[in-house]
Amino acid sequence: MTVQDTYIQFQPLGFWLNIQHDAFYAQHNLSMRNFVLSVTRNVNVTVDYISSPEVAFLQSIEARFRRSATKLVFRFLGPNDVDPSTNQTYDSLLKNLTFIRTFASGIIVPKSYIWPVDANLYLLPSTSVVLDAHKEGLEVFASEFYNDVPFSFSYSYDPVAEYLQFVDNGNFAVDGVISDFPITPSAAIDCFAHLGKNASKQVDLLVISQNGASGDFPGCTDLAYSKAIEDGVDVLDCPVQMTGDGTLFCLGSINLIDSTNVAQTSFSNLTTTIPEISQGSGIFTFNLSWSDIQSLKPVISSPQSEYTLFRNPRFKNAGKFLTLSEFLVMAKNASSLHGVLIGIENAAYLAEQGFGVTDAVLNALSIAGYDKQTAQTVMIQSSNSSVLMKFKGKTNYKLVYQVDEDIGGAQSGTIDDIKRFASAVVISKDSVFPENTAFLTSVTDVVPRLQAANLSVFVQTFSNEFTSQAWDFFSDATVEINSFYAGGSINGVITDFPKTSNRYRRNRCLNQGSKTPGYMSPVQPGNLLTLVTPAYLPPAEAPNPYLTEADVAEPPLPSVAAKSPTSSPSGTATSPTSPNGQPKVAACVIVPLMAVLLAIYLLF
């Protein structure tokens, strides 16, 4: 499209021409100056800004626009790049803003000119560029913002946080930004800037942590939990695991390999395979004592590492794990919390091994006084109905059923069964908005049907990394959260970045009715897919299965088996047991002994 056609068709509120390579065109007898002047003479086109990285070009048109509403803006390229008309580096020109003001009313600078980062991609102190330019009467526009290109770890993969750093830092604010994803800065500036920490909630959306703020620190550590509380989480979670000596503690997986450095320690010889609780091999919490586990280093989770998106490497091994009792003390002392969520998985298997995890959780909650208080809600979550049935009727705790697969719907009988033992359900994002190769395809009726049965619906997992989101959300976690709340009507989010969700529900653009700006409207599932050229459409996928009564129904938990006492020296783990209860290491000793006896028999 020509410049004129673009303006006439879209009638933008503002129109900006960026003129690159004037010197190159001049070498080919083409005049960008004449082109720009011809465009601005067109009565059907209004040009608000003209920018260029070449001093000579802007100087050549400055007199023609001196009394015009059109603003001229000098664009800085890389610090070591050279302006062809002055033969000076842009870094050198930046030190002479008084000269720039003679032919321009503003400057464009890469964002790193304002907030530089170190070699490890962490923010350094800001420069004085914005303040210096404003002193000279120059507007400042920051460039090189991209939602889908990794930026500083200091922003926790949240593009809204990055924009706010440039317009709401308490010291200065740029006059504008240049972005490939305009939806994000539009919302950041209009809806989130200058909210303050005490801004009131605009919508009722529960924010539940996943292993604390595990996007910023190793999950289930004191640092992850402290950060989640600081970031405004409502419900702090503790996925309970049990050690070999019966200590309950918080960890996201029963397999220590998933979240510790155990595979790089002397405990690596305890690797075993237990199909009942884990795919593949692992080193499991009940094979080590609590003192053993305390000797391990936490490891931060990086679920998008296949895309080389790693989380907060500076603190990848920081923090310490907490026992359930320590977790409950921390939570009880946090007055901002609405409650705690205790996750229990693998209870049936553990009971067969002599570990009574459900009774131990009840006892820990009682000792902490949670059975006698109402200030904080206690939620018990499990993907096993047998676990929740064990708690049913014994306490006033809120029971949460986790559906551990993507579903396309739920049978009426299944929903009735869930109501017998739970008041809330956790489902996946794909169970609300199904995806096909990261494109949203439709919306299911799972949420409204569960809510019609008076079941709250919490959805997991909301992460900031753009690769965790469908294309439809423009690589912006806030757009995703808004679409699930405003478009999917969910009751709560489960997230490893609580700060993003907490900030969302406080933004001033919510509850505006017909005045809601377009950038705060939920995306329409399937719309983006219609723009894909037919030849490149992904093949259709089978719909997700319905949740049936057979998926939910379970026999009662088995009685806790008698557990023979074992002892383990400090720093030495108890040998893992096979299903028959015999130590696996012992078997390795018996086999060679039998071979020796057989050899002696054959020799004599």
Written overview of the protein:
Helix content is 29%, strand content 15%. It is built from 21 helices and 23 strands. A nine-stranded mixed sheet has the order 9-22-21-18-16-15-14-10-11. Residues 567-604 have low confidence and may be disordered.
Q: What's the short story on this structure?
A:
This protein has 604 residues and is α/β, with parallel strands linked by helices. Helix 8 packs across helix 9 (183-192).
The largest sheet, given as strand count, sense and whether it forms a barrel, is: 9 strands, mixed
Q: Give the oligomeric state.
A: single chain
Low-pLDDT ranges: 567-604
Rg over alpha carbons: 30 Å
Rough outline: elongated
Strand content: 15-25%
Q: What do the pLDDT scores average to?
A: 92
Helix content: 25-40%
Number of helices: 21
Number of strands: 23
The end-to-end distance, rounded to whole angstroms, is: 96 Å
Q: Record the strand order, biggest sheet.
A: 9-22-21-18-16-15-14-10-11
Q: Indicate the structural class.
A: alpha/beta
